[in-house]
Q: What sequence folds into this?
């Protein structure tokens, strides 16, 4: 087998089979001042590294509990209302809307 073929096989084996998803946020709201801990429930979060942005601002703390749960301290916001959530993993990104609201 040629070296390039071996590389392709190894790369295919190392790639995740599914993209991460965000199914639910508990609680689904938080204060505009930030600092509150919420939990993101979903699938295929990276066990080691996840960055979370809420309303365009990076969460100061994002801790992976397991592949289905992230614990996140929300950043402050200047605007009340729905805020987009972006989870960045080493392999893929996921965006959720209508799951979290600043109040």
A:
């Amino acid at each position: 087998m040629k070296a390039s073929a071996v590389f392709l096989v190894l790369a295919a084996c190392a790639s995740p089979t599914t993209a991460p998803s965000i199914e639910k946020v508990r609680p689904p709201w938080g204060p505009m001042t930030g600092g509150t801990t919420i939990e993101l429930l979903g699938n295929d979060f990276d066990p080691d590294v996840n960055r979370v942005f809420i309303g365009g601002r990076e969460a100061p703390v994002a801790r992976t509990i397991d592949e289905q749960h992230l614990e996140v301290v929300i950043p402050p916001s200047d605007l009340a209302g729905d805020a987009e959530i972006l989870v960045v993993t080493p392999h893929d990104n996921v965006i959720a809307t209508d799951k979290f609201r600043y109040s």
About this structure: The first strand starts at residue 21 and ends at 26. The longest helix spans residues 3-14. The helical segments are 3-14. The chain has a mean pLDDT of 86.
